[in-house]
Amino acid sequence: MLKTQQTEVSEKVIIGVDPGTQVMGYGVISVKGQQISLVQYGVIHLSKYSTHELKLKKIFERLTQLIEDYLPDEMAIEDPFYGKNAQSMLKLGRAQGVAMAAALARNIPIVEYSPKKVKQSVTGSGNASKEQVAYMLEKILKMELSREFMDATDGIAIAICHQYHANSPASAAGSGSKKAKKGGWGAFVSENPERIK
Description:
Keywords: Cytoplasm, DNA damage, DNA recombination, DNA repair, DNA-binding, Endonuclease, Hydrolase, Magnesium, Metal-binding, Nuclease. This protein is an alpha/beta fold. The chain is 45% helix and 19% strand. It is globular. The protein has helices at 52-70, 86-104, 115-123, 130-141, 150-166, 169-173, 184-191; strands at residues 11-18, 23-32, 35-45, 74-78, 110-113. The chain starts with 10 loop residues before the first strand and ends in a 6-residue tail after the last helix.
């Protein structure tokens, strides 16, 4: 008589955050084995707050609430892209920092991804439009997404990008730092020892 071993498929919850100073998008996904399902997505409207400090406070409060509600195992967040306006970059960096602080306060590991990396992971093109990203997410998740929440679809895309990269052979062989960028020279060396002289 043969005993069948049943291995329980563990579930991982990832929150993806698209930082912003007017609108911040987020997406929470659940991953069981290779199955990705959408748990929640939405936006935090910040334009109604009169000062930057109030916006930062709201970001921290809402993300803390989302973390308490969905208990994510990991946070994936988009790197601020470099714009022409230094003041805008500073404010965006602060928004990202406050979002990260909400995760760090709960000991949740954080990984950052560039906007180009996120688009490339989801659509195959680093120059894809928001509409193309949303279209591909609908195919991946096998469901329709609300077009009024384009910033939220960016949050979902960041979470899915993280899932793809966190489970790639490069990341498995990479560094132990959860904050580290995925891939890079360490991963290349681990995957291609015969190419090093």
